[in-house]
Design goal:
The protein has three helices and no strands. By secondary structure, the protein is an all-alpha fold. It has one domain.
Length: 79
Amino acid sequence: MSNMSYCRFQNTTKDLEDCYEALQSIMDGEETISNDELRALKNLLELCKDITDSFEFEDIKEELKLTKQRLKEEGDEEE
């Protein structure tokens, strides 16, 4: 199920924290995963790398600030 746009990053962060903890357990030899999960893990790590290589948080914050300013100037945003 996909996340609602207003909370997708909050929900995904919680899920990634769970994955991080699971990875720690795997690396400590406390947990194993199936081949399907291993393939999904590989895809997840590649996606996380793509995200971190493509986006800088400060750039995103600046773009959002500019977008809000443009909307405000156009009268599309309530104060």
